[in-house]
Amino acid sequence: MSRKEKTQNSAARDEAGPSSAFTPRPCPICAKMSVERYRPFCSKRCADVDLQRWFTGSYAVPVVEEDRSPEDDGER
Ligand SMILES: [Zn+2]
């Protein structure tokens, strides 16, 4: 039956897509195996470290201030 085939297909797709299954991967911070709760990190500490990196990274972005003021342009 074609109906049954469709059902089987969707079931197979569900199995293929690891949306619920957790695959441990090396923590990007310390390379330990990650845990589902803090993925992709191994612990809250590593998640915090990564967060901190993000913050410091954004703060470290150089602010380019323009010395030139619009008035200088008008003088000439
Ligand atoms: Zn870690």
Question: Summary?
Answer:
With 76 residues, this protein is mostly helical. The protein contains three helices and no strands. It has a domain at 22-55: Erythroid Transcription Factor GATA-1, Chain A.
**Average pLDDT rating:** 77
Helix content: 40-55%
Using the alpha-carbon principal axes, give the shape: elongated
> Which molecules are bound in this entry?
zinc ion
> What is the gyration radius calculated from CA atoms?
26 Å
Features:
mainly alpha, 76 residues, Erythroid Transcription Factor GATA-1, Chain A, binds zinc ion, single chain
Characterize the structure shown:
This protein is an all-alpha fold and 76 residues long. It has a domain at 22-55: Erythroid Transcription Factor GATA-1, subunit A (Erythroid Transcription Factor GATA-1, Chain A), CATH 3.30.50.10. It has helices at 2-16, 44-60, 70-75. The longest helix is centred in the C-terminal third of the chain and has 17 residues, at 44-60. The radius of gyration is 26 Å and the shape is elongated. It binds zinc ion.
Ordered list of secondary-structure elements with their pairings:
Layout: H1 2-16, H2 44-60, H3 70-75
Bound molecules: zinc ion.
